């Protein structure tokens, strides 16, 4: 599916422990750099085939986004966000989520795993989200009669 949409995904020989990467991402969130860190972690893992549970890799990724590397390393070593991550995991398990990616849409639909784009379009249509066209959203009145009739 990835190749079909122009993505390259490096396959890994074994599963990794994602907790150190999750800890690093939460540290980045505190510093206002979550989006950049999240992007770079995914790039390191999927594009570059790196082990994002390795602290050396996390230091490299943190440096790329301008994060306080020593602070991130200390937060990971101290399990600073452990309680928060454990609570999020428990919450996910209560919802029946046991893998990633998982998308909860409008508190009504759960989409598990990598799914084709058209599945997301169908779910979004069910909750009344208009399809994005050319970078903008169409008017909800598009196609209705002109002149208020």
Keywords for this structure?
mainly alpha; Glutaredoxin; 6 helices; globular
Written overview of the protein:
With 149 residues, the chain is mainly alpha-helical. The protein folds into 2 domains: 3-88, Glutaredoxin (3-Layer(aba) Sandwich), CATH 3.40.30; 98-149, no CATH class. The chain has 6 helices and 2 strands, in the order αααααββα. It has a two-stranded antiparallel sheet with strand order 1-2. Strand 1 (102-105) and strand 2 (109-112) form a beta hairpin. Helix 1 packs across helix 4 (69-77) and helix 3 (55-64) packs antiparallel against helix 4 (69-77). The radius of gyration is 20 Å and the shape is globular. The chain starts with 18 loop residues before the first helix and ends in a 23-residue tail after the last helix. 16% of the residues are buried.
Question: Any chance you could write out the topology, listing elements then pairs?
Answer:
Blueprint: H1 19-30, H2 34-47, H3 55-64, H4 69-77, H5 82-94, E1 102-105, E2 109-112, H6 117-126
Antiparallel strand pairs: 1-2
Helix pairs in contact: 1-2, 1-4, 2-3, 3-4
- Enter the CATH topology name of the largest domain: Glutaredoxin
Task: Write down how many β-strands occur, each being a DSSP E stretch of 2 or more residues.
Answer: 2
Large-scale geometry: globular
Q: Helical content, roughly? A: 40-55%
Uncertain runs with pLDDT below 50, 5 residues or more? 139-149
Largest sheet: 2 strands, antiparallel
Report the sheet-strand fraction.
5-15%
**How would you describe the oligomerization state of the chains in this entry?**
single chain
Helices, by number, come to 6
Q: What's the CATH class of the largest domain, please?
A: Alpha Beta
Q: For the record, give the distance between the C-alpha atoms at the N and C termini, rounded to a whole number.
A: 46 Å
Spatial strand sequence of the major β-sheet: 1-2
Q: Which series of helices and strands comes N to C? A: HHHHHEEH
Derived structural class = mainly alpha
CATH architecture of the largest domain: 3-Layer(aba) Sandwich
Write down the overall mean pLDDT. 84
Rounded Rg? 20 Å
According to CATH, the homologous superfamily of the largest domain is Glutaredoxin
Q: Tell me the number of structural domains.
A: 2
């Amino acid at each position: 599916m990835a190749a079909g949409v122009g993505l390259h995904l490096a396959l890994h020989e074994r599963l990794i422990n994602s907790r150190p990467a999750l800890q690093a991402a939460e540290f980045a969130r505190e510093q206002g750099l979550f989006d950049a860190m999240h992007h770079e972690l995914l790039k390191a893992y999927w594009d570059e085939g790196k082990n994002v549970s390795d602290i050396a890799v996390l230091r490299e990724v943190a440096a790329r986004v301008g994060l306080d590397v020593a602070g991130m390393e200390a937060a990971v070593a101290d399990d600073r966000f452990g309680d928060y991550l454990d609570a999020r995991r428990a919450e996910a398990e209560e919802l029946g989520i046991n893998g990633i990616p998982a998308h909860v849409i409008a508190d009504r639909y759960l989409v598990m795993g990598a799914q084709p784009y058209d599945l997301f379009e169908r779910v979004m249509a069910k909750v009344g989200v208009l399809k994005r066209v050319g970078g903008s959203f169409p008017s909800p009145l598009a196609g209705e009669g002109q002149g208020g009739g």
